[in-house]
Sequence to fold (487 residues):
Amino acid sequence: MLFNSIDFAIFLPITFVLYWFVTNKNLRLQNFLIITASYIFYGWWDWRFLSLILFSTIIDYSIGISLSNQNNQRKRKILLYISILINLGFLGFFKYYNFFLDNFISAFSFFGTKINASSLNIILPIGISFYTFQTLSYTIDVYKKKLEPTKNFIAFSAFVSFFPQLVAGPIERATDLLPQFYIKRHFDYTKAVDGMRQILWGLFKKIVIADNCAQNANIIFNNSYEYSGSTLILGAVFFAFQIYGDFSGYSDIAIGTSRLFGFNLKQNFAFPYFSRDIAEFWRRWHISLSTWFRDYLYIPLGGSRGSIWNKIRNVFIIFIVSGFWHGAKWTFIVWGALNALYFLPLLLLNKNRNNTNTIAEGKFLPSVKEFFLMLLTFTLTVFAWIFFRAENISHATTYIYEMFLGLNDYINYYKTYRFIYNLGTPYIIVFLSFLIIEWIGREQKYALEKFGIKWKRYLRFTFYYLIIIIIFFFTLKKDLSFIYFQF
Fold:
């Protein structure tokens, strides 16, 4: 079920009413309603894959109980490895089987050996990368004795399948989210209003920014041979805002929806395009995944400790694995490696923690130095996004070649101007307004959290209704799925 669909617009209020007015006196029943709603939400796409979520839930719940009853360290490790192998085994089969098979065949063909093997027509379950990592965090933390294993199967099932963040995050840690299912929730009007405001901004980012940028990015990327260098740059910028509006928009809707039901999820995006270096960008982009890899992969490998070669190795491992997590394509691996190259000089020069505060904190405008650092970081990020968006390595390299080759063709700058002009003045004004609001709200958890909060009530609600009108005005005829559903 898509957040930006009529189905969800009907599903959410029904679930909300049942949650607060029917099951509110019984915590166990309330958690069971969450499970039921979550399975309906996920099964709306394909009910057959509900068995995967249920199986993963049973396995990790059982292993958690077994770990609590086991003091032998060797046997505890075996239990942990069983959880990791089963979870990553399912993820590997559905997501990477054909990738490894095709590359295995290609490698032997290169040496003159022909192997007859057929790819499987495998459907990738939506959100499998997200809920797999979420359940793994539980067994790993139980193994490390950072978390007491739960004996409440209903609460654990609700934690694994919690519908707001089930298919595209944020990837919540068991230490943060699971305890919230143990305690009785009380309706908080202020929290609910704040949740609705965040949902509204998330829908704006998805429908108005991401979907409309997607249309233009697709035109340029799918017909890149027809366009000049400046238009190809524009296409990459369109995709940069498409993926930001799409994914951060989903996170906003997920976090806001959770607040309607009395839950607190962690911030997943912190205005990453206002970063002054790549290290800051990765502290602000997809925070739940970045910190997951940091805590469960980078630090166990040694992190930034040890020799220079160890540091280099660990950085490349975490970024390449992060790229591979996104999908079974060489373009994602190159994208990860490219970000590792961006990050390494900062780490080796011990400058990766230089920018931990918000840019121009307490000020309206950044300094000249901050502005150019922000522009440089955005440029490097947009360049890397070309590999992320391209169909394959050949497409990416051709796109980049044509992009730089066409920059000296000044006649074609007029075509780029016409492309922007054809967007229409209303959309350009709306897009620039979006950037201004994001900039003003950059010190908050999301742009609208405090924006206009001191205005008179009628002005504030006029502004909210204006956003709703803009959403309807710029809604495309077809509901577009969220990018990260494919990961």
